[in-house]
Amino acid sequence: MQRKGTWLTYREDVRVVDCTIRDGGLINNFHFNDDLVKAVYDALEAAGVDYMEVGYKAAKDMFKVNDFGKAKFCDENFLRDIIGDREKKVKISVMADVGRTNYKEDILKREDSVIDMIRVAAYIHQIPAAIDIIKDAKDKGYEATINLMSVSTVKEHELDEALEVLGKTDVDIIYLVDSFGSLYSEDVEKLMKKYIAIAEANNKKIGVHCHNNQQLAYANTLEAMMMGASYLDATLSGMGRGAGNCPLELLMGFLKNPKYNLRPIVKCLDEQIAPLRSKMKWGPDLQYQLTGQFNVHPRPAIEHVESEDANKSYLDFYDKFVNENL
């Protein structure tokens, strides 16, 4: 398989998807003020970013509404207020987790909503349920993606079968997701060959969503793009729970398409995101490095970092974690 383009060219099919509020909201239960969410949207518009994933379509009978900010549920009035009266230039995306969304009731028909794309997140055993959400989204007129989670832990023959099944659905984009930040460029290359083969056989696009446990999210995003991924996920300053994600400013600084403009992103980092560092903690650290290298969920690292234990140390975590995982 030949690489798609070079370091000095750009592909017209590439789309940048900002997930700052959706992924960042996992740190603070989406308690962002409306002005900040609007400022992020404004910056993305000025920068030429293609999509903003604002948050989730979570089921209100499963989550206490008062415990979360608005982006957990992405009600229509909230989304319309972000955009305002202007012509919408940045498409709006929301995520629907299998088993955590009342999609039939809470996701309106496309003509009644400002949402453009429904992103379905599922583990491999949830694919039948994910297909139902995909069909519902497509029947209502939306673009749809399937974000197949934790593929680094999936057996190869199971992944092959899953991709074959998903290729035959109406989904528009199949996402390679490095949930644990455990993949290396060689892994991304091998997986992308599988994903691209299915995409080309079924007229689909491929997306990539990388976590930064081993500080490879940016490199792996570029690797996936060079192999043919069209939809590239990133967040401002890499914001996301735990080690975070591919930093949007790195990706925007690399992309050669003149429609993208880095300066509005830098301005938003300066005015909106940097001040959050005193209130929210994210980014690569030793604990996340270890979970990535061991290919396990970063939950123990997150619990250690968020712990109020005054005596916590890198070495304490290392000894306990390695002994439990060897």
Structural class by secondary-structure content: alpha/beta
- How large a portion of the residues is in β-strands, by DSSP E? 5-15%
CATH homologous superfamily designation of the largest domain: Aldolase class I
CATH topology of the largest domain: TIM Barrel
Q: Portion of residues in helices?
A: 40-55%
The SSE string, one letter per element, is: EHHEHEHEHEHEHEHEHHHHH
Termini separation comes to: 36 Å
Tally of helical segments: 13
CATH architecture title of the largest domain: Alpha-Beta Barrel
Low-confidence stretches: none
Would you count the extended β strands for me?
8
Give the count of structural domains.
2
Shape: globular
Largest sheet: 8 strands, parallel, barrel
Strand order across the largest sheet: 1-2-3-4-5-6-7-8
Identify the quaternary structure here: single chain
